[in-house]
Structure formats: C-alpha cells, structure tokens
Design a protein that fits this description.
There is one protein chain. 29% of the residues lie in helices and 24% in strands. The chain is built from 8 helices and 14 strands. The termini are close together.
C-alpha cells in the first residue's frame, strides 16, 4: 500500500479551542500512523508547541511544519532538526499595522525560535519569551509575527487588516482577533510541499485537514493536485470555498470521524 501523507492543522482540528485533546482523536491519529500512513502536523504554532502536540498525540512524525510554513523540521534521533527556515524584515509590516491597530499587541519569533513580545500579548505560551518595547521587535529578522487586537471582533479586525495594503508578507487572520504574518509567499502549502518532495509522495496521495484562514493555500495546493482538502465543520466560508469535502466540527471529533473513515477504506 502506498501511504497517504496526512497534513493536520492543530488548533481547531487536532485540539479544541481550549487546547483540550479528545481521546478519540488521539487514538485515531495513532491508528492511521500504525496503518502505515504519514502524519505531519502543519501549523502556525512555534516549534516547541508543535513538538509538544505530537508528544501529546503519542506519535513521532518524520517531519513537522511550523510557523505557517516558515519552519520545516525533520526527525533526527530523539528530536528534530531545522531543515528549512524562512525569515524576513518585519519592520515595515509592523509599523503599518501599529498605525491601524494602536492598541494591538505583538510577538516576533526569530530563526532560532526566540520570541519577543509587547504588553497585552495574552493567551499565548510565553515561556522563555522576552517582553520588549515595540521598536525592539525589529532587531533581528523574523520567522513569524503574531498580532493580537482583542478590542475588535474578527470581522472588524479582518476589514482593518485588509485595508492596510500589507506588502512583501503573507498573512492570515485567526479564529479570534489575531493575525499571523510570514515571509512573502510562505504558507503551510510551501512547507508541506517540501515535506512531500522529501518523502516522494504525490499530491493525489495527500489529505489535509484544517479549520482556519491560514489553511486556504494548503487546501488550494492539495486540491489542485487531486488530493483531499477536508474542512472542519466550524471552518469559515473562505476555507469551505476551497475544500473538497467537510467533516464534523472539532467539538464533535470531526478529525477522528475522517481518519476512521480512511481506515475503513483499506
């Protein structure tokens, strides 16, 4: 049997909004791995929290895609090495955003995984991160930038960001009022494509599952090559429009429903 490459978003797909992990989902992920398929986590999360999610699932993926595609990791012994890292000068984008979101909070992650953040960055893992003043965010090239604006509803936040005319970056709005910014042309699709090439798995043998706007490019890339792009039931219209199919929402273990169906197809 030629294995499937199964690319999984984490937040809203593998774990619920409160970061809890269903036993059924974890068991289903382990089952497809035991069946010989390749599971790759493809997420906007940092390396540390991507690796910790794999550990929670009880799997040791050969590769991981973090920081929305800016970081591709390969298994090396008991840990992971950085196979590919993309960085960019975030100063122009951050200054543009700060003018439109004066009450926003910011976090920048560099190529080594070090994170700097400003006041107001809440509900994020800030272990070993450094609080800095806004201008200090620009001191090193960024691999990933996160912007939060809890004062705005998601639709309002989206309208504000779309009106900023950001250039030379890729960005996606989260399920709450936060923004992920990556180097121009870098997204989950570019990261997963690198993994697929390394593993020599064609797109028609790829299944991706996600629930957010930062999954759009990954869905489009997989669907264009004859693969399956599966949206979680709570996904926004932008993702549903490019999905090839849907599954149940995360609160109803939609990922497990899909993975169990893949095993039934054998």
């Amino acid at each position: 049997m030629q294995p499937l490459l199964i690319g999984l978003d984490i937040d809203g797909t593998v774990v619920r909004e409160d970061d809890s992990l269903s036993d059924r989902v974890a068991e289903a992920v382990r089952a497809v791995v035991d069946a010989g398929h390749v599971v790759v986590l493809a997420t906007g999360r940092s390396q540390a929290t991507t690796e910790s999610t794999a550990l929670r699932l009880g799997i040791e993926p050969s590769h991981l895609v973090s920081a929305n595609g800016a970081l591709v990791l390969g298994r090396n012994g008991d840990g992971y090495e950085r196979l590919h890292v993309e960085t960019f000068d975030a100063s122009e984008a951050l200054r543009t955003i700060s003018q439109g979101l004066p009450t926003g909070a910011y976090m920048v992650e560099d190529a080594e995984g070090h994170r700097r953040y400003t006041d107001g960055m809440v509900d994020w893992n800030l272990d070993e991160a450094q609080r800095v003043e806004f201008e200090e965010l620009f001191e090193v090239p960024a691999m990933r930038v996160v912007v939060m604006s809890p004062d705005h509803e998601v639709d309002e936040f989206l309208d504000i960001v779309e009106g900023m005319g950001l250039h030379k970056v890729s960005y996606a709005i989260g399920y709450s009022s936060w923004l992920d910014i990556a180097p121009d042309g870098v997204n989950k699709a570019t990261g997963l494509e690198r993994v697929a090439e390394l593993l020599e798995i064609p797109r028609e043998r790829i299944v991706v599952v996600g629930d957010g706007r930062n999954d759009v490019e990954m869905f489009e890339w997989v669907a264009a090559g004859g693969g399956r792009a599966v949206a979680m039931g709570q996904a926004p219209e932008e993702l549903l429009a490019v999905a090839t199919e849907t599954t149940a929402p995360v609160d109803e273990d939609g990922l497990a429903v899909l993975l169990e169906s893949l095993l039934d197809e054998r």
